[in-house]
């Protein structure tokens, strides 16, 4: 292995201090590589005013294996982008978030430090649990609506039944999950080790998914009421469980009092009259029948963020939707913003970033500890530069490539490349705040797609050791499966323990505890160590502690892993995360380990 593989830096406190710098502050930046190298000079390349600036770095530390270079820079920009230029006897190299390159890199892959950006102080130690309100738990007699919506009446389902597909029930089948049910299952969350909840929409709406909001200031009567929700949040927070809500702010439902196409309200809505005070809230093409909507679905009319009064209503005013639920008596801990990639964007209106900047500034000024998370199925990097979201649901940067690797003929090299590419366009501060998931209400459950439970354990090990904040979907911990549609993934949570996979549940408990107790997994650096046909290996490290992870989706394999590039000394002891096995590196800092078929290894070096 050449010296090239030893070149390393990241945004962790091993290489960047302080961790969260303020604008104008001086920052220390470090680079590490093998001592035995052809390097003659190391330069830090920046472009604070658009023109390239090269400053020489100096040696600050040496040992038998490594040499460290450092430099201190005053950071005057909001986003400080940099990369390293290495002059060697072999020619010139560049090192950035993508890795080592001989050709001049694109700026977009530079390392980044965001000033004046601090995620919620509580975030990194959290494990999120997503609850689909109608399907999690029901206590007392369920309240089933009696209205007719789009010609369809609500269907009462028994808890043991399966959800209907859209063409069967039109999302009008209700199981009756409610606030009292959540109260009754707090002990399950605590026993599992969960310390953060993400609720799918809970506001008054006609459908079971509630993404067609009718009233943003009212808890859906099927789920409960405002006062019982306030009590629930207080009880959860007393149990050290944070709460974020689903904010459907790209569009409303057609039954929303502001649009009122369903005529549920006496007050004239935007659909009924151009003189309505809400007409400018929406994007009409030709009033009233032609308007922009979410993906052309006319029951979900799209909001017009060019309208100042709409922005007042959603986030500007003290009594706006976002602030209403962030302040007492509810005091939620943040928002998961639905369809974040679409918010503020419509034909002829593409200047969406100022809207996000304003939203963040207003919310963070008043509620600095709130978590601003965005749903985004594509490339969210434009919203992750410190002036919009704290994080995104990491579908493209984790969920989809991992699921493809485990269920399709997706090459390990392609897996590594996609993970690296999506890490390369945002700062390390954001990477550690990303919401990583294997399952959600919008995709089939991974357990349905996998061929065996051992692969689900492997996937879970991946989830809890990859940089970012791990999140699980209700029922994932007990092996809840489903079908090939998103509707079939929204099964009611079975509460008879005989229906649970108790072995899987115990595995989740142990892994959640392991992650919550590990500062290395919460904030440590990341380096890929091994990429083979069916093997993906990497390390997390911080302050002299290292966790090695090797994932094997294929047949039993013997691995010889060189740990020298991550500064592991010869003959170092490696303890298995579950204390079942103790290993040692050899005299060359290589670890030899046998990984059973469809299994994993996690080792700790201290």
Tally of contiguous helical segments:
16
CATH fold assignment of the largest domain: TIM Barrel
Q: What portion of residues belong to β-strands?
A: 25-35%
CATH superfamily of the largest domain: Glycosidases
Low-confidence stretches: none
Shape: globular
How many domains, in number, for the residues? 6
| CATH C-level class of the largest domain | Alpha Beta
Q: Summarize the biggest pleated sheet.
A: 8 strands, parallel
Q: Terminal Cα separation, in Å? A: 24 Å
**Spatial strand sequence of the major β-sheet:** 22-21-20-17-14-11-24-23
Estimate percent helicity.
10-25%
Mean pLDDT: 96
GO molecular function: hydrolase activity, hydrolyzing O-glycosyl compounds
Organism: Uabimicrobium amorphum
Keywords: Glycosidase, Hydrolase
Protein name: Alpha-glycosidase
Compact overview of the structure:
Keywords: Glycosidase, Hydrolase. GO terms for molecular function: hydrolase activity, hydrolyzing O-glycosyl compounds. The protein is α/β, with parallel strands linked by helices.
Describe the structure.
One of its GO terms (molecular function) is hydrolase activity, hydrolyzing O-glycosyl compounds. It comes from Uabimicrobium amorphum. The structure is a single chain. The protein is an alpha/beta fold. It has six domains: 3-114, Immunoglobulin-like (Sandwich), CATH 2.60.40; 133-248, Transcription Regulator spoIIAA; 251-302, no CATH class; 319-361 and 370-390, no CATH class; 394-517, TIM Barrel (Alpha-Beta Barrel), CATH 3.20.20; 523-605, Immunoglobulin-like (Sandwich), CATH 2.60.40. It is built from 16 helices and 32 strands. The strands form eight sheets. Strands 22-21-20-17-14-11-24-23 form an eight-stranded parallel sheet. Strands 3, 4, 7, 8, 9 and 10 form a six-stranded antiparallel sheet that branches. A six-stranded antiparallel sheet has the order 25-26-27-32-29-30. A hairpin with a 3-residue loop joins strand 5 and strand 6. Helix 9 (395-407) packs antiparallel against helix 10 (412-423) and helix 13 (453-465) packs parallel to helix 15. 46% of the residues are buried. The model has no long low-confidence stretch (mean pLDDT 96).
């Amino acid at each position: 292995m050449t010296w090239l593989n030893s070149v390393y830096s990241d945004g962790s406190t091993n290489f960047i201090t302080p961790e969260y710098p303020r604008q104008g502050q001086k920052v220390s930046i470090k680079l590490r590589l093998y001592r035995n190298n052809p390097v003659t000079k190391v330069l830090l390349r920046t472009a604070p005013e658009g023109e390239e600036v090269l400053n020489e770095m100096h040696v600050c530390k040496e040992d038998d294996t490594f040499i460290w270079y450092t430099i201190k820079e005053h950071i005057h920009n909001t986003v400080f982008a940099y990369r390293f230029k290495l002059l060697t006897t072999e020619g010139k190299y560049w090192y950035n978030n993508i890795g080592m390159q001989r050709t001049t890199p694109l700026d977009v892959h530079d390392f980044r430090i965001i000033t004046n950006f601090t995620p919620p102080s509580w975030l990194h130690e959290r494990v999120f649990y997503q609850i689909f309100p109608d399907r999690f738990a029901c206590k007392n007699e369920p309240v089933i609506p009696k209205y007719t919506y789009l010609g369809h009446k609500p269907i009462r389902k028994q808890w043991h039944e399966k959800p209907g597909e859209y063409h069967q029930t039109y999302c009008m089948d209700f199981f009756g999950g409610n606030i009292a049910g959540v109260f009754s299952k707090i002990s399950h969350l605590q026993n599992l080790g969960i310390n953060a909840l993400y609720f799918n929409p809970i506001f008054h709406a006609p459908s079971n998914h509630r993404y067609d909001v009718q009233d943003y200031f009212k808890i859906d009567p099927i789920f409960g009421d405002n006062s019982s929700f306030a009590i629930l949040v207080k009880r959860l927070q007393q149990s050290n469980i944070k709460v974020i809500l689903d904010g459907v702010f790209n569009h409303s439902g057609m039954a929303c009092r502001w649009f009122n196409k369903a005529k549920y309200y006496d007050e004239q809505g935007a659909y009924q009259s151009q003189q309505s005070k809400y007409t400018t809230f929406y994007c009409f093409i030709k009033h009233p029948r032609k308007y922009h909507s979410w993906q052309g679905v006319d029951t979900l009319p799209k909001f017009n963020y060019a309208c100042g009064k709409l922005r007042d209503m959603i986030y500007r005013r003290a009594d706006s939707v976002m602030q209403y639920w962030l302040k007492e008596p509810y005091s939620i801990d943040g928002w998961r913003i639905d369809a974040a990639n679409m918010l503020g964007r419509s034909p002829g209106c593409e200047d969406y970033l100022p809207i996000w900047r304003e939203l963040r500034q207003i919310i963070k000024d008043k509620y600095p500890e709130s978590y601003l998370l965005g749903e985004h199925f594509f490339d969210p990097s434009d919203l992750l530069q410190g002036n919009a979201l704290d994080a995104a649901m990491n579908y493209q940067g984790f969920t989809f490539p991992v699921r493809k690797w485990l269920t399709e003929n997706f090459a390990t090299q392609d897996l590594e490349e996609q993970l690296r590419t999506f890490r390369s366009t945002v700062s390390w501060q954001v990477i550690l705040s990303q919401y990583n998931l294997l399952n959600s209400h919008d995709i089939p459950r991974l357990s349905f797609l996998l061929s065996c439970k051992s692969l689900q354990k492997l996937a879970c090990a991946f989830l809890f050791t990859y940089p970012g904040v791990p999140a699980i979907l209700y029922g994932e911990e007990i092996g809840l499966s489903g079908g090939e549609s998103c509707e079939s993934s929204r099964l009611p949570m079975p509460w008879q323990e005989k229906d649970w996979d108790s072995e899987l549940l115990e595995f989740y408990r142990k892994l959640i505890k392991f992650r919550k107790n590990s500062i290395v997994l919460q904030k440590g650096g990341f380096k890929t160590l091994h990429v083979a046909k069916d093997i993906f290996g990497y390390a997390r490290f911080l302050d002299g502690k290292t966790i090695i992870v090797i994932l094997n989706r294929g047949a039993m394999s013997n691995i010889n892993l060189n740990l020298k590039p991550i500064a592991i000394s010869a003959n170092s002891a490696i303890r298995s995360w579950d204390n079942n096995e103790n290993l040692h590196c050899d005299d060359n800092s290589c670890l030899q380990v046998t990984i059973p078929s469809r299994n994993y290894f996690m080792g700790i070096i201290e």
